[in-house]
């Protein structure tokens, strides 16, 4: 079996060591994960089938995975505990790092198509347990530019045949909008600024900076209870012109979302539009409002975090499915199909 960490593939074995002298510098009886001759201490002392264990690298060994809090799932079998390591017993482990590497060669259309009923989408069963999420933040445009809003949208309906205008997927997008209490009194008033009072996909919640931080952590460090072979729930992040989004969230909330090792792909709807030759009025870099207009969709009060998050996931769905729900249409699709207006 193999385990992928970063860009390297290692042979992976799990041992229960009753005689620490078998390994150099090991001090106690414990479970050890051995990767390319590097033993790594597991926190669980008696893992059971499908037990979620946290890997803690011993200080004298090379760090394993993207962070100390790397998760893994162990399929437990019988171990030899009679004073020797059971070297013949290999344990299969799949990490988000290996999934991320597998998806590097896959296009955004292939990956999102996996969730949207596209028959030729990439065949990767591990994607079944992934979440498709958009995070959007808005901030006051005057220094020190504090973050005032947070929007999160998630594609909830997956693996169904797309309906007319993909309405089954679009109506199944779950959206949350939060305003940061400490800065809720700050409101941009320049032309084109969003209106935090007008969230159109639910009810706005008021949260503290710390509560907003915890929401982000729960979203990106979610234990996957449904899968038997995957660690933290893999996340497909969808954004529109996403170059600096992660850095901004880290500056605003002190959370580096990339450090959890759960993000396996970042999808940019602006790039997807360019690949379909959908351009904006001033060039190839199309804005979110114009991209939605291409599909006859109008969402008022963009630049409100919750509305932007919802709009971005909608755009990702429509871009992915355009050739299937609007066949033989090279330009903007019709607004009415089978008597249904989008």
Describe the structure concisely for a colleague.
The chain is an alpha+beta fold and 342 residues long. 22% of the residues lie in helices and 23% in strands.
Describe this structure in words.
The chain is of the alpha+beta class and 342 residues long. It has 2 domains: 2-93, no CATH class; 97-341, Ribonuclease H-like superfamily/Ribonuclease H (Nucleotidyltransferase, domain 5), CATH 3.30.420.10. It contains 8 helices and 14 strands. The strands form 3 sheets. A 6-stranded antiparallel beta sheet has the order 1-2-3-4-5-6. Strand 3 and strand 4 form a beta hairpin. The longest helix is centred in the last third of the chain and has 21 residues, at 305-325. It is globular and about 50 Å long. The relative contact order is 0.14.
Q: Which key terms come to mind for this protein?
A:
alpha+beta; nucleic acid binding; Gfd2/YDR514C-like_C; Gfd2/YDR514C-like; 8 helices; Nucleotidyltransferase, domain 5; single chain; 342 residues; 14 strands; 6-stranded mixed beta sheet; RNaseH_sf; 2 domains; 22% helix; 6-stranded antiparallel beta sheet
